[in-house]
Amino acid sequence: MPEFKVQRLGTLMTPEPGNELEVEGVLNPAAVRGPDGHLYLFPRLVAKGNYSRIGIARVKFNDAGDPVGVERLGIALEPTADYEKRPDGGGCEDPRITYNTVLQHYVMNYVAFGPNGPRIALARSNDLLHWERVGLASFSPYKHIEFQGVDNKDSCTFPDAIPNPSGHPELGLLHRPLFPGTSPEEMMKKSRSKEIDIHLESIWISYRPVKLNEHIPVKGAKFTSHHRLAAPEADWEKLKIGCGTPPVLTKHGWMIIYHGVHETDGTGDQKQRLVYSAGVMILDKDNPANILYRSPQPVLKPDNPDEQVGLIANVVFPTGIDCRHDLGTPNRFDLYYGMADDRIGVARLDIPDELPD
Questions:
Q1: Contact 11/307 with Cβ under 8 angstroms?
Q2: Cystine design at 159: which of 98, 124, 140, 203 (Cβ 3.0–4.6 Å)?
Q3: 3-state helix, strand, coil in the chain (%, to 5)
Q4: How far separated are the first and last CA of the chain, in Å rounded?
Q5: CA separation for the pair 72, 142 (Å, rounded)
Q6: Cα–Cα dist 42/275, whole Å
Q7: Any idea what DSSP says for residue 247?
Q8: Do 276 and 315 meet the contact criterion of CB atoms below 8 Å apart?
Q9: Rounded CA gap, 313 and 77, in Å?
Q10: Bridge-partner residues for 123, per DSSP?
Q11: Pairwise CA distance, residues 35 & 31, whole Å
Q12: pLDDT tens column, 235-289
């Protein structure tokens, strides 16, 4: 029976001793190939007081082609804009990066932790080393839901234009709105028999027009046509799901590695009883709003000590993906993921010739 196979390759990056920028962790990196062909990571660097910056690091590989370490290169973004700063700090968090073939530049989605809470922010670059802020993503309302004032996280853009609900090619955005009352801690208190509704933390897809070489202007360029792509279903993702890695095109369709959260038995506080695991989702190449496959069980879950013990226990949180075309293995993808909100791991994912039933 075909299946998605995952093999851990190890812990790639840990907080650097004596580095004040990383004293509370390195985690949740973007991963993208640069114009020079090298693979770059953009980890979230957490300083004292949960003050986050986005760093830059070049990945080192061994003779077999497996990632084994990083070379730190500096800072890509740190909180300087008003929407990234709070009286008690602020943050630029959890980036995802794609090279957009229509815009012909790199697009970074990240969480701006500012005065109103977490919001989706965008930045652009031609070389990965110099970044220009675009601003906060803007949204049109959806029925009775006002997206514009809702906390939002776990966003990424498709690397190419995709059909909107009317069939017109547009920029596609995956994101996870955090509607009031839907956090995992709040959902744990509710009846387990509660039916899935529109307010559960889910993966949404939205669209906006895109033109060659534009800078994704914020004003007058709202994301629209919102659609809930996927909601929590299986036991391992019962409390919430969110997009992890940006979509990559495979022979089966667009693939994302997403995270799901469930509650484990125990006597600790609610947050420490949450378990973050990862699964595979395949979207139709010609209609990404259509899901072709979804993992019935996680392909990666917190099974080793680096994933079970840290700032937040029992967390694997994939945010970066790299197709190993450089090795001549287009069915191999390396996954870069946060481990217990403290360090960064890497695993190898091999996709099957056919989708599982």
A1: no
A2: 98
A3: 10, 50, 40
A4: 9
A5: 42
A6: 24
A7: P
A8: yes
A9: 27
A10: 108, 133
A11: 13
A12: 999 999 999 999 999 999 999 999 999 998 765 555 678 999 999 999 999 999 9
pLDDT higher than 70, residue 77: yes
Count of positions (residues) in the chain = 357
Provide the greatest CA pair distance for the chain: 55
> CA-CA distance, 74 to 198, in Å (whole number)?
41
Instruction: Please write the tens of the pLDDT for every residue from 7-28.
Output: 999 999 999 999 999 999 999 9
Residues contacting 313, CB < 8 A, separation 6+: 272, 302, 340
pLDDT tens readout for residues 113-169: 999 999 999 999 999 999 999 999 999 988 877 788 889 999 999 999 999 999 999
What is the H or E stretch that residue 305 is in?
helix 305-308
How far is residue 74's CA from residue 78's CA, in Å, rounded to a whole number?
11
184 backbone dihedrals φ, ψ, rounded to 5°: -55, -40
Distance CA(164)–CA(170), nearest Å, equals 6
Residue 166 CB contacts under 8 Å (≥ 6 apart), including other chains: 225
Structure tokens at 269: 């506080």
